[in-house]
Design a protein that fits this description.
Structural class: alpha/beta
Low-confidence stretches: none
CATH architecture of one domain: Alpha-Beta Barrel
CATH class of one domain: Alpha Beta
Largest sheet: 8 strands, parallel, barrel
Distance between the termini: 36 Å
Strand content: 5-15%
Number of helices: 18
Radius of gyration: 28 Å
Length: 537
């Protein structure tokens, strides 16, 4: 439990009744240092944030409108600015997490350049990013707490008792910028032991929640690409258990595991599991394999794998690379069985169903089947930039209106032309945008989605922002492009980063210099600091 300003100060007064340490360092300086150090270790963060997620999950179970959200961040600074924006808007960051995307680590944060989402990057890069994000969020705490203590000092110097009491109340009511991270561990980067070892490192870096998918580690693909290969359920369950044991070993008893299934779009598996009898996990996986009958006209060949199925001998369809094919149009059934197995036998807490389009009804229908077996099943859902959201939602509206007899098929075009700006202000365009605005609420209440995330927003935001600035700055607008599109907007939106020296801790450094040096302190924040131009902002 966080101790209050007065509690810490009282303890220090018993040690230093003169109100300062030998040598003259004020005990208020020590109080500030203790309070701005919001967590002792990143493992402490994992333990505390796991409790936060569990409380949020319980709140969602009681009221499905209380879903949580996150954005994928590929640097600590992105995460820091996201949380600051949320706190500025809402006054709190409760219900907001950070998503750490394996795609963005592969694409932007590894030593080998820009890579596809195929687990080719160093797995240590994922750990490093968790560490970096929490370092940035804790630094935001330090900067903010320093500002609060500056207000306290100013109130005391002015002899304003009311302002002093308000400053202490603000210090005691301070809410940390640290929030839960859902960390993408891909398919585990190896076997179950490798998964366990990586999971431990992620947890020690601060991750309270691990998301793992049921693809083959050495053939892993982005969930929105072709060529996905799933593993038998026993194999995936062993990796889920490996994650759980990593949490248990490190004392993060409330750690959260998200079990992701890519079966909806995966038509291949790497191996045929060994069944011990009808109805076990292996037989329920094997039954979906695409097979051909062994007959006199198509006899078994030497070295061929055969199966006994429904009293007949069949051969599973096998590709030249050794992979086995599933029957067409069985993805939905496999997803449902995957999810039930992950929850009931794999220690998973949340599900992730990777879909091809953002369709609330499709997700809801699968969750309905899962909840017949596991009533409190909850999902994390990827509001993916891989979807063409505008086109998908406009197509859905068009199809619904045609089915309802509201419009004829010739009222709006069918196809990519629906993306045209000419439809932005039409009834169909407005209806699609309204559905977009309500999409997360709809899947939360109708489809059991506890957590909504966007995997790659900061990737696309950075690309768009740099394109916009570069076009203007290197074109005709020159400095106007920067000032109008960046700085002026920062000032008017109260984005604290406009005072970039303060944002990275310049004032915090000045305060510490004063703590140890008093009047000898050489400070950066004097009258000649150009950041003073932004004080009014």
């Amino acid at each position: 439990m966080t101790r209050t300003y007065r509690e810490i100060r009282s303890d220090l007064m018993r040690r230093y009744p003169e109100g300062e340490m030998p040598g003259g360092v004020s005990i208020d300086d020590i109080v500030q240092l203790r309070l701005q150090n919001t967590f002792d270790t990143h493992l402490d963060i994992a333990r505390e944030m796991a409790k936060v997620m569990r409380e949020d999950m319980a709140a969602y179970d009681a009221d499905p409108s209380r879903f949580t959200q996150s954005l994928g961040c590929w640097s600590g600074f992105h995460a820091q600015q996201m949380i600051k924006a949320v706190k500025r808007q809402r006054g709190t960051a409760k219900g907001v997490y950070v998503y750490l995307s394996g795609w963005m680590v592969a694409g932007l944060r590894n030593r080998w350049g820009h890579l596809p989402d195929q687990s080719m990057h160093e797995k240590t890069a994922v750990v490093d990013l968790v560490e970096e994000i929490y370092t940035s969020l804790r630094q935001a705490d330090e900067v903010a707490m320093n500002d609060l203590f500056k207000a306290l000092s100013a109130a005391r110097e002015a002899g304003n008792a009311q302002a002093e009491a308000e400053a202490i109340a603000a210090i005691d009511g301070f809410e940390t910028h640290v929030v839960p991270i859902i960390a993408d561990i891909d398919a585990g980067f190896g076997n179950e032991h490798a998964t366990y070892l990586l999971a431990k490192e992620l947890i020690k870096a601060g991750a309270c929640c691990l998301q793992i998918e049921n693809q083959v580690s050495d053939a892993k693909q982005c969930g929105h690409q072709d060529g996905k290969v799933t593993v038998p359920r026993e194999d995936f369950i062993e990796k889920l258990r490996a994650c759980r044991l990593a949490f248990e070993e490190l004392g993060v008893e409330e750690g959260v595991i998200v079990a992701r299934t890519d079966s909806l779009g995966a038509g291949l598996t790497q191996k045929v599991p060994v069944s011990q009898g009808a109805g076990d996990l292996a037989s329920d996986y094997i039954k979906w394999l695409k097979t051909e009958p062994v007959t006199a006209d198509a006899p078994a060949r030497d070295g061929e794998l055969l199966l006994a199925q429904d009293g007949k001998t069949v051969r599973p369809v096998r590709l030249a690379n050794g992979l086995f094919a599933f029957k067409e149009n069985t993805g939905r059934e496999r997803v449902i069985e995957d999810c039930i197995a992950s929850l009931s036998q794999g220690c998973a807490d949340l599900l992730w169903i990777e879909t091809a389009t953002p369709d609330v009804s499709e997700i809801a229908s699968m969750v309905e089947e899962i909840r017949k077996v596991v009533p409190n099943a909850k999902l994390t859902y990827n509001n993916s930039p891989s979807f063409n959201w505008t086109l998908n939602l406009r197509k859905q509206v068009r199809a619904d209106w045609i089915a309802q007899g509201k419009i004829g098929e010739d009222a709006y075009p069918d196809g990519t032309r629906l993306m045209s700006p000419e439809f932005d202000e039409t009834d169909l365009g407005r209806e699609a945008d309204e559905r977009l605005q309500n999409f997360q609420s709809d899947i939360a209440t109708r489809a059991g989605v506890f957590h909504n995330l966007i995997t790659l927003p900061t990737f696309h935001l950075t690309a768009k922002g740099m394109d916009e600035l570069s076009n203007g700055y290197f074109g005709k607008e020159r400095m106007l492009a920067y000032v109008r599109n960046v700085q002026r907007e920062e000032i008017r939106r109260s984005v604290s980063a406009v005072k970039h020296q303060h944002e990275v801790g310049s004032d915090l450094g000045d305060t510490f210099k004063e703590m140890v040096g008093g009047e000898r302190a050489l400070k950066a924040g004097g009258a000649k600091n150009t950041m003073n131009q932004f004080e009014a902002a």
